[in-house]
């Protein structure tokens, strides 16, 4: 079983590296050094993590993280990829779906200067999901399929992992 998980990770990594192959031909010396010294230990760490994971989607996410680390090279530290793999082990498919929905729904209002979306824009986003007002305010998203209690629970988990932050609620916008 563990061998099949390792094999699945390596197959996924090979698929991901084929996707970024065009960028691999232009590696500079620091990038080559990163691959030789830091990337392969990351792959070994990913293999160990894959042995502990049951879900193939989680293993696939680890492969995507490794491919991104390879592509980004020395511009991102190996520690960032290592932390991302640790978090990927903890996230269910539903968690990832919610995180993606939060990102897609708020990316237009994200401020690189502050590193977040403003409180009022976040409240506007959550108002779209409010069962009382949301259906009349905007298009239905994948997040609408989650009962609000489940959505709040997933957001609590994402917050505990440092992936989202809670913002001050505006009671004039949300019921």
Structural commentary:
By secondary structure, this protein is mostly helical. It contains 9 helices and 2 strands, in the order ααααααββααα. The protein has a two-stranded antiparallel sheet. A hairpin with a 4-residue loop joins strand 1 and strand 2. Helix 3 runs antiparallel to helix 4 and helix 6 crosses helix 9. The longest helix is centred in the N-terminal third of the chain and has 24 residues. It is globular, with a radius of gyration of 19 Å. The N and C termini lie far apart (49 Å).
Short description:
With about 180 residues, the chain is mostly helical.
Notable characteristics:
175 residues, single chain, 2% strand, mainly alpha, 2 strands
Please give the share of residues in helix. 55-70%
Percent of residues in beta strands: under 5%
How would the global form be characterised? globular
Number of beta strands: 2
Mean pLDDT: 87
SSE string? HHHHHHEEHHH
Task: Please give the structural blueprint.
Layout: H1 2-19, H2 21-24, H3 29-52, H4 56-72, H5 78-90, H6 93-106, E1 110-111, E2 116-117, H7 119-129, H8 134-137, H9 148-160
Antiparallel strand pairs: 1-2
Helix pairs in contact: 1-3, 1-4, 3-4, 3-5, 4-5, 6-9
């Amino acid at each position: 079983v563990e061998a099949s998980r390792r094999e699945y990770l390596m197959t996924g990594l090979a698929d991901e590296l084929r996707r970024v192959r065009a960028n691999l031909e232009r590696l500079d010396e620091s990038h080559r050094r990163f691959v030789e010294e830091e990337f392969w230990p990351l792959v070994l760490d990913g293999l160990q993590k894959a042995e502990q994971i049951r879900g193939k989607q989680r293993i696939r996410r680890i492969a995507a993280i490794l491919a991104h680390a390879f592509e980004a090279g020395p511009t991102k530290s190996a520690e960032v990829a290592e932390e991302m793999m640790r978090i990927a082990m903890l996230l269910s498919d539903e968690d990832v779906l919610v995180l993606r929905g939060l990102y897609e729904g708020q990316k237009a209002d994200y401020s690189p200067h502050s590193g977040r979306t403003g409180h009022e824009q976040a409240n506007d986003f959550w108002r779209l999901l409010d069962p009382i007002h949301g259906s009349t305010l905007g298009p239905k998203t994948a997040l609408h399929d989650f009962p609000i209690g489940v959505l709040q629970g997933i957001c609590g988990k994402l917050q505990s992992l440092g992936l989202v932050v809670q913002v001050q609620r505006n009671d004039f916008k949300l019921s």
